Amino acid sequence: MPSFRTIDDLPAEQRVLVRLDLNSPVEDGVVQDNRRFSRHAETVADLANAGHRVVLMAHQGRPGRDTFVSLEQHADILADHAGVDVDFVLDTFGEDAISAIRALDAGDVLLLENTRMTDDELPEKDPEEHAASDFVETLAPEFDAYVNDAYSAAHRKHASLVGFPLRLPGYAGRVMATEYEANTAIADREFDGNVTMVVGGTKATDVIGVMEALDEKVDQFLLGGVAGELFLRAAGYPVGEDVETDLFDEQWAANEETIRSVLEQRRDQVTLATDLAYEDPDGDRGEVAVDDVTEKTQSFLDVGTETVETYAPIIRDSEAVFVKGALGVFEDERFSVGTVGVLEAIAETDCFSVVGGGDTSRAITMYGMDEADFSHVSIAGGAYIRALTGEPLPAVELLVRSAEDGAAR
Questions:
Q1: 197, 222 in Cβ contact below 8 A?
Q2: Is it the case that residue 265 has pLDDT exceeding 60?
Q3: Cα separation, 84 vs 79, whole angstroms
Q4: Is 182:354 a contact under the CB 8 Å cutoff?
Q5: How far is the C-alpha of 349 from the C-alpha of 337, rounded, in Å?
Q6: Is the domain of 152 the same as that of 84?
Q7: Is 286 domain-assigned?
Q8: What SS3 state is found at 245?
Q9: What is the DSSP string of 64-111?
Q10: N-to-C CA span, the chain
């Protein structure tokens, strides 16, 4: 674990500014409840019940997108999960926000408006520049401490993530601490047995970078999704090409050299799908062995049943299993066989397991699995990728720096 302080280290009765990541799907203007609310609720409840005055910051969507909405609905959803009242103010750092902050009593919780509705938030800048912004300079004097619980946004250099820990003593919330520990385990921990990584999803460029970075840490990669098809393409099969999609050819062009290099140098570490699933003319699930594919004429939406039967024993013989990306379009039950099959194999195995990425982790609850059967289910995407590859997380580095500065005083 890095040497940052956590909320257990906070002095009593602090005025605390807390950064959460409540970014959520929005359907017809309605914010959807999800795992992020329940996870961050623990931090919020612990702070409120300890008697701190708690002010929350979070973002939702980006300007110009349908998901760019107010956080007013988020306050009610978070309150339900945390079991404490969460007030909301339609302001981020103006007079209304400052007045609401100053009116708080011990144990009160207030959620500020969407941080991305301020001009200072989104530009990627050095922490020192953000610390000098009107946003940070106006809010920081109202608080005794800053808590970052937004691990899933920790790879961003946004004002609310990297500016405040230069103005206030910085602490990690519950989500930040547990996510960082679990997601860096593949790089930091030593495992006596086999380490397996399940690689899928649509962002092949990300996971191929992970494979390259972790080749000495991982004994076996099990492939599916877009990355799986691209590796099959490199192995000489007529798949991994765009048909009714725009997912393959561009990523192939960007990664062909790396894919071929990985296959050539570490072929025994990479297990490819032996069959793939598609939608047949009747709308049902069809499967075809990759050896029998002569031309890709339609999209493949999952790995096949035989592939799952090959992957499951490898998982069961592993001491640690990390998942990054789904093996198919699991939201459609017809094409959930690959993703659900490997997750069930992991759940049945007494191994250290991390399921990463919000999309993939949704399959656990969607298909009635118990989250407790996995060592950790991550709510992070980009930060998870960075942790796996050992790249720095700016927001985490600032918490460490804050702790070091505090110890030096």
A1: yes
A2: yes
A3: 5
A4: yes
A5: 18
A6: yes
A7: yes
A8: coil
A9: TSTT---SHHHHHHHHHHHTS--EE-S-SSSHHHHHHHHT--TT-EEE
A10: 22
